[in-house]
Model the fold of this input.
Amino acid sequence: MAYVRTTKRENPFVQLDKEFIGTGDMSLKATGLLTYILSKPDGWQIRMKDIEKRFTDGADSIRTSMNELVKNGYVNKYRERKENGTFGDYVYEVYERPEFNPEWENPIQDESPKRDFPKQDKPVREKPVQENPVYSNNDLSDIDFNNINLSNIKQYLSIKLSETNLNLFVQKRLMKKDMIDRLMLHSENLSINLEKILQSIDDLYNDFKELLTVEQFTSCLVDSLNGNIAKNPKEYVRSSLNKKIDAMHTKKAKAPETAKKSKLDNPEWFNKQKQERAKKAKTEQNKQDSDVDAAKLLNDFIAKKEVSSNG
Done:
């Protein structure tokens, strides 16, 4: 029987990373299934049969959603091997983000749309069907994106991103629909060519790649692009990155003080128990001292009596 093993960061609340919600890459059913599983405590084992009983979608629908999570990197599915060498149950390890999944690989070139050329031997229509334009590296500026569908925009971004030094994870995040929408919005509102915005992001990545991890850079970049950029986007994002670094240094500096304070400021219940233990130990010591004094008096009495008898 297959079961699910949740693998996510510790948190005492039902608080989720919103990165996977509404990105346009998954269905609502798959998003709901991921939300349900990640709401469980760490180490919680969820059997697929149990999930099927708790919802009305049916076994096929739930398994389809689970396969969708596997495809998008949120779930690592494998089969356990028993000590005798035979295979056991299927295990589904669930992650908050695909980049936390060590087994996930999804190259950016796989997202580029593939064109299907029509066969020329037996044309069906008298008038040729106008195909979507394909962009070359020589002419990628001043494009009217209002008249181009999402597939062609992604193709354009794929070509331009391949020319940058951006990490593959950063490229993939920028290729998601919500980021494409934000890039297009900033390009239109600020009257800045999209190619220039991508170049600015590439420059920032080169400046900060030694100071921040790929995940930290991407998270800060996404938050900045989701904000209201009033002017130069490069300087706006740079300011956000610098603030993140300052926050990291501040947190690191406060860590020793916090640790020292936690050692000095014991909770009230701890101090109370400590006092009770000290009081009990003192009572035991006084009792032992009393027993010693009584024994000494008895020995002295016996010794005197023996001396008197001998006299």
Q: What stands out?
A: The CA atoms of residues 169 and 214 lie 7 Å apart.
